[in-house]
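Hi C.,

You asked whether I'd gotten around to modeling the 251-residue construct. I have! Everything is below, sequence then structure, no commentary in between.
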Amino acid sequence: MGKHYLSTLTHAALFALLSLFFLPTLAFAKHEPATSRVYQYSTLDALLKGQLEGRLTLSELAKNGDFGLGTFSGVDGEMVVVDGQFYRVDDHGVASLVAGDSKPPFAIVIPFRATQTFSVVEALTLNQLGRFIDQRIRDQDLIHAIRIDGRFKQLLVRSVPKQSKPFRPLADVLKTDEVRFEYKDVEGTLVGFRAPDSMSGINVAGYHFHFIDTGRSFGGHVLELITDSGIVKLNQASHLELQLPVENITH
């Protein structure tokens, strides 16, 4: 009986000690705002290696965010998610709404709520725009969703036609099948993310933008640009939920 009492006391003491470390963490996670969490399906490395067939539906993806980007099964165009609507920019540069049963092999979304807002009122290239935003980001070790609504003097964007099996690595697809479009003096929205270097391989380290015009009729993956003026909104995110591709998705 004495040994049992000591054993019970030891376990109770151990639980109390562990609670000091873990309960504050659990409490923080419970009250963490949803807008600080990014959801990503698959990884950049998987896409680069030719894992181009999607299994997660857009309807499931939409439960995790209303703003983001990605591609579609067989890299069938560029995905732009804005204001809760999912668009596909095809290999003609044409944007259209996509049905909820479509399956992306890669996507990243967030329930967008701006944590910082500022203006851009000068002509900046894509690299200059990145440095401009970097100077205003509060913590560069976190993920930032970026929405820029404005006018652009120039835009060079791309899309890709749907691929057939057996799928080639994405880098090979882009070398042979990439289609580019150039626009001048257009208004629209940049949908993008800035990922820290620590996410290299999981996502694009640095800046990654897709574009869709104000009329939601054309766009693509941004290769180059020159800004005119616009409003920049950032949504800082401290947590990443990563879903690896599996045969059956359940939530």
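If it helps when you're writing up: The helical segments are 2-31, 44-48, 58-62, 126-134, 170-177.

Thanks,
B.
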